[in-house]
Amino acid sequence: MFQGPFFRVNLCQPVADSSFALASHIVAAFCCVILPLAARAQFGGKVEIEETSTAAEMRAAGQGFVSSVTMRRPLPTRTLPQFLAINPSLSTVWPGLGTLLETAKVSDFYADLSRRKLAYLKDGNSLSDHNYLDCATVLLLQHPVSQRHGIRLQADMDVVTDGSDPDRAPNLSDYDSARTSDWFLPQTAYTWAGPPRTPNPFLEYYPAAVARLDSYRSLFQKEAETDKGRIWRLLIAAVDAQKARLKTAGLSGETIRALKNSRSLLGTEDPFVVLPLNWVSGSSSP
Predict the structure, then answer these.
(1) At which of 23, 46, 71 does a domain end?
(2) Among candidates 92, 62, 66, 65, which has minimal Cα distance to 80?
(3) What is the total count of domains within the chain?
(4) pLDDT in tens, 15-50
(5) What is the pTM of this model?
(6) Residue 17 lies inside a defined structural domain of this protein
(7) d(CA 118, CA 73)
(8) Alpha carbon of 104 to those of 89, 136, 138, 161: distances in Å?
(9) 66 pairs with which residues across the strands?
(10) Looking at the structure, do residues 99 and 63 belong to the same domain, yes or no?
(11) Same domain, 180 and 251
């Protein structure tokens, strides 16, 4: 059995070979090949091997060597002590929270979010411990005096590095910190209304970067013509991969139009929370 914060996995081993050493190799292969990278770190090294049938019988039955996967779904936070364990300052900034929690009900949105995460994992995708456990609760509140209703969402808030706004950050160097992220993108789906007054610096940066990569590729190609070593082939492949990535990130027609005609929210300057679309579109009720 493999066990982590939110899942447990049982493995089946053919009865013809009870060698734990061989079982360990099977387990290692399972971790490296089948489990998503983010999930592997959560196992903690606990292994349970079930000897149920021979390899031929297991193949014939189409069972594979994973007998079951148990997912752990967190209970919603509901009481004041549970909230204070997350943030001790809540009782100070929200003095009446304890009273509201006495009659609070868990919103269907919380179960909907859990279902979506489990479906995402079942499809073979990965979620880190942080992202799987990022929402503590979604509660329906009603004030005992005014009778007004509200929704209490308690969740982690991440700050993204994507986005560019030339009116507030006109120079490429303004994005040096954000660009340390391997997955930085100059635009997001969240934008301010109206086109920028100042040209976006990434409109010049991406073509110039591709041109520099082309010059490096020419140098590596010349070396590869006289030196058949693997290093030059790897460098050429790396350059080609980066060119493809730059063209996708900054030179696609959609991206160029967005950079010319809109200003993205800046994650470090414009904090925002992203909620599932059905929560705000009216397609489902809380």
Answers:
(1) 71
(2) 92
(3) 3
(4) 544 444 444 444 444 444 444 444 444 555 566 778
(5) 0.61
(6) yes
(7) 9
(8) 20, 14, 10, 36
(9) 11
(10) no
(11) yes
